[in-house]
Amino acid sequence: MEEMGKYIGAGLACLGMLGAAVGVGNIFGSFLQGAMRNPSAAQSQFGNLIFGFAVTEALGIFSLLVALILLFVA
């Protein structure tokens, strides 16, 4: 029963990686849409794009870390 709980918890923790994958696509899609509408402002927003990408990926890695902790430590 305890083993089953570990697997269920780790699976639920991995749902954060799904959100990260969707978030990255949304970030880049929105940037490209804005860059096509106003190409002169695209270069000034590139730093915000990279920051959003890094934060989103960090959340996905964090959810993977929580899943691994649930499997091997708890």
Automatic annotation (TrEMBL):
The record marks 57 as: Reversibly protonated during proton transport. It comes from the Bacteria. It is a multi-pass membrane protein. GO terms for cellular component: plasma membrane; proton-transporting ATP synthase complex; proton-transporting two-sector ATPase complex, proton-transporting domain. The chain crosses the membrane at residues 7-29, 49-73. Its main location: membrane. It holds the Pfam family ATP-synt_C. It is found in: Cell membrane; Membrane. One of its GO terms (molecular function) is proton-transporting ATP synthase activity, rotational mechanism. CDD domains: ATP-synt_Fo_c_ATP5G3. Keywords: ATP synthesis, Cell membrane, CF(0), Hydrogen ion transport, Ion transport, Lipid-binding, Membrane, Transmembrane, Transmembrane helix, Transport. Residues 8-70 form the V-ATPase proteolipid subunit C-like domain. NCBIfam families: PRK07558.1 (NF005733). Key component of the F(0) channel; it plays a direct role in translocation across the membrane. A homomeric c-ring of between 10-14 subunits forms the central stalk rotor element with the F(1) delta and epsilon subunits. HAMAP family: ATP_synth_c_bact (MF_01396). Belongs to the ATPase C chain family. This is ATP synthase subunit c. It comes from Maricaulis virginensis. The lineage of its organism: Bacteria, Pseudomonadati, Pseudomonadota, Alphaproteobacteria, Maricaulales. The gene is atpE.
